[in-house]
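--- STAGE predict ---
source: upstream dedup step, 1 unique chain passed
mode: sequence only
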Amino acid sequence: MPRWSLPAIVLMAISLLLAPAAACAQATPPATPAALAYTIRTDLVYDTVGGTALSLDAWLPEDGKVNRPVVVVVHGGGWIGGDKADEHRQMIATTLAEAGFVVASVNYSLAPDQIFPQPVSDVQTAIAWLRQPAQVAALGIDPTKFAALGDSSGGNLVGLVGSMGEGSLDTGSRVKAVVSLSGPMSFEVDLASGGGAGSVLTYLGCTDAAQCPNRQLASPTHYVDPSDAAYLLVNGTEDTTVTPLQVEVMAQALDAAGVEHEDLVIPGALHGSYLWRDPLVVADVLAFLHAQLGE
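--- STAGE serialize ---
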């Protein structure tokens, strides 16, 4: 039988007492990064359509870094209203800028003056404009790392930006990641998605739902191919404007093409930008963007 000296017994007792504390210290999660300060440059004109200047607001983190990834934020409003600087856009852009992303909150042409495909064309033009060398230098952005985030009708537009086109995701108007908060993904499944059949038909430029080819052409599901951006699709179970069925049909299209996606259907949650009031949704969006853009 082994014999233990008194000092050895004392040392063993101390080590046993300290072990739980050491384990707890190792298990402590890393501290959340401090929110970055930022500046805002407003009303940067990126195009003119039908005599109307189209502009965006740029939110720029202030920590001296350059080559930052960009999140293009596209407002909702049923394609007939909304604004780049409304309360919800301020809330979303603040969170993203504090997390280290350059944010471009975009205004685009509205129906009935401009109908599909002009609104999505505007968003694509804004992305291509931001990639020009002058904007890259002035705003300190990485032209190869773009994402697009939109809610409701803005979710439809970013869904189209993510699925239209083929090939490289770091040039032109292509993006690496799309976040849709209650965005209509297929008008063939549900014409009323996004604000009621009347609002949708106005956007699509149709008077008869049965004779409206833009129902298909304005649906992000129509364009999905294997080269497309990764998607994060978020909906609430209590959203009666754009139901979770839209997540399901887009997920099926992305699966068929082998495109990466994450789907979040939040119990009890409502429509569009109100999803941003859920801290778990915000955390999931930030984690997704950081993973896809490598920041």
